[in-house]
Design a protein that fits this description.
Elements: H1 3-20, H2 25-30, E1 46-49, E2 52-55, E3 58-62, E4 68-74, H3 76-86, H4 88-105, H5 109-122, H6 132-142, H7 155-162, H8 165-171, E5 181-185, E6 196-201, E7 214-220, E8 226-230, E9 239-242, E10 246-252, H9 265-275, H10 279-288, E11 295-301, E12 306-312, E13 317-320, E14 327-330, H11 343-351, H12 354-367, H13 373-380, E15 406-411, E16 416-420, E17 429-433, H14 434-441, H15 466-487, H16 495-502, H17 507-520, H18 523-534, H19 541-559
Parallel strand pairs: 4-7
Antiparallel strand pairs: 1-2, 2-3, 3-4, 5-6, 5-14, 6-15, 7-8, 8-9, 9-10, 10-11, 11-12, 12-13, 15-16, 16-17
Length: 560
């Protein structure tokens, strides 16, 4: 079943029950954090140019690679207010993109009302599971939320709920789970013996959603200073490093659907990044928080000179270490003893593309036994399958699925980090040095970029190739063919042939062509397309079964 249809059916199927089971919703919507002990007064924002702003000794600026750099300091409320003020346009933009995506997935006004009730019910206990300091920060940001969406919810609960969007989408049939990939190498597996970590964050909510990435440098009055890759209105951590050389990234695991939201995983990782300086402290913080989805928290530590994976879920907790090895790999399945007999995890390994990407990372790390930051970026940009096989562009079995929100590389012992610029992880990886960023940031009246003057990793030459142009063409045509399948309309003359030629090794191209012909009653053409799809590297076991089902159905028709 297509993921968009699954979302609609979930909301419709549960709707009547959830509307009746509304106990606690009103209390959740009325809850406000206690901000009485924080400073609610901040300076006025001053605009220096169309892409540079200062607010006291805080700033927001856009660098030449198109990444927004944000520096804020203070207590939780101050950080929220300063972030909201400096990033107001980016925040409003992001909220519009997010709401438009929901409208695209659920276009019916009646279903949207049902969705609103569902989310209010589902999130009814989130406020009890988010620490007061983060509620205060979110409250500060919410003061700059767009008034255009107050019909969805009041600003504060709305922004709070947005922090659980990754978790909720993940829980509802892993909607946000595409295929994040992470790895670490150290000791004899890196050129200088130091810890090196790379990751792709493959959360995709459309190209517009990833357009305005923010590299946030946060200096809180309590805890450690840290950086993270984020977007407007979001305080959680998806990929980040603190001034102690502790790094965090998250990879979604297989989840059953929980009945209530608890602590969003990005808030758990934010707390770890702000208050942990080593692996032991990170584990202790993760253990005390109640989550509502399954997630791998990939932790690298300069002090421990290694990386581990903290595996959390609503009912289990595990830590995975590699023992004597100096190499750690993480895709989207669990590896610790706590999940050895977990049925959801076992099924996910069998049915998904997680194990395939894991093995591809093994191959590439074996080919490059002395990793460097440049080689780490090359690995993250790899579009091939096992053995270097051409599996089509955009295949979820590839490490580079050409949809990543960002790619990132950390060198924790030197406090160095490289962050990708658009498109995907193909643009220039911009270097930052946390040894100097926070000193430079707190006295930066002209809001100049705090990136390093040297050491960037250049954009992928693939961007300039005909193959990349063809991939862009494929994406456009894929939407047109999918729309024609949904509406029953015909595509323009020659579009099917052009679509096939745009990405011929990708199984889904032939699957969509087969589906289009099947809907039109062109059985011979449909069967040929599905048989061609069957010869390609199909992403998941359920997808392969769908192709096989169509082939059997068409073969039966031909014998009648």
């Amino acid at each position: 079943m297509p993921k968009t249809r699954f979302i609609k059916n979930i909301f419709l199927g549960l709707g009547l029950i959830l509307i009746l089971a509304s106990c606690g919703v009103a209390r959740s919507l009325r809850d406000l954090p206690d901000i009485s002990t924080y400073n609610a007064e901040i300076p006025e924002r001053v605009q220096l140019s169309d892409s540079s702003f200062v607010l006291g000794n805080n700033f927001l600026t856009k660098n030449k690679q198109g990444l927004w750099e944000l520096y804020v300091n203070g207590d939780p409320l101050e950080i929220g207010l300063k972030t909201g003020s400096l990033t107001q346009e980016l925040f409003n933009w992001q909220e519009t993109v997010f709401i438009n995506k929901i409208n695209e997935l659920v276009p019916s006004e009646g279903k949207q009302k049902l969705l609103k009730k569902f989310l209010a019910w589902y999130n009814r206990k989130m406020y009890l599971n988010v620490d007061s300091q983060y509620k205060a920060e979110i409250y500060g940001i919410s003061q700059y939320a767009s008034k255009d969406y107050d019909h969805v919810a009041e600003p504060y609960p709305r922004v709070l709920y947005f922090h659980g969007a990754h978790d909720i989408g993940h829980a509802l049939q892993d909607l946000a789970l595409v295929g994040c990939s992470s790895f670490a190498a150290w000791g004899d597996h890196t050129a200088d013996g130091k810890l090196l970590i790379g990751r792709n964050f493959d959360f995709y909510a459309g190209d517009e959603f990833a357009k305005n990435k923010i590299i946030a440098f946060v200096a809180p009055d309590k805890g450690h200073k840290f950086m993270s890759v984020t977007w407007g209105g979001f305080i959680g951590v998806l990929s980040g490093m603190n001034d102690q050389g502790l790094t965090l990234t998250i990879n979604a695991g297989k989840s059953s659907i929980p009945l209530v939201a608890k602590t969003p995983i990005s808030i758990v990782t934010r707390e770890i990044l702000q208050y942990a300086s080593n692996i032991e402290e990170a584990i202790a913080i993760a253990k005390k928080r109640k989550v509502f989805v399954s997630e791998s928290i990939f932790v690298g530590s300069a002090k421990d000179k290694k990386a581990v994976i903290i595996e959390v879920s609503p009912k289990k907790f595990g830590v995975y270490e590699v023992g004597s090895s100096n190499q750690l790999i993480c895709s989207n399945h669990f590896q610790s003893a706590a999940y050895a007999n977990d049925r959801d995890n076992q099924r996910h390994i069998l049915e998904s593309h997680s194990q395939y990407r894991y093995e591809r990372m093994e191959e590439l790390l074996d080919e490059n036994p002395k990793m460097t930051p440049k080689l780490a970026v090359d690995l993250l940009r790899d579009t091939r399958g096992l053995g270097g096989k051409d599996i089509g562009y955009g295949n979820e079995k590839a490490l580079n699925q050409l949809l990543a929100h960002h790619g990132i590389v950390f060198q924790p012992e030197d406090l160095l980090v490289w962050v990708s610029s658009n498109p995907y992880q193909l643009g220039e990886f911009v270097a930052y040095d946390l040894n100097t960023v926070f000193e430079t940031g707190k006295n930066n009246p002209r809001a100049v970029s705090v990136s390093r003057k040297y050491g960037n990793i250049q954009k992928d030459p693939f961007i300039q190739t005909e193959a990349f142009g063809q991939y862009q063409r494929y994406r456009k045509l894929s939407k047109e063919v999918s729309a024609a399948i949904a509406s029953g309309e015909r595509v323009k003359a020659g579009a099917i042939k052009e679509f096939e030629e745009s990405n011929p090794e990708f199984w889904e191209v032939h699957y969509l062509i087969g589906t289009y012909y099947f809907k039109k009653g062109y059985d011979r053409l449909a069967l040929a397309a599905f048989r061609k799809a069957e010869t390609k590297e199909i992403t998941t076991l359920p997808s392969r079964k769908k192709v096989e089902k169509y082939i059997k159905k068409l073969q039966r028709r031909s014998t009648l």
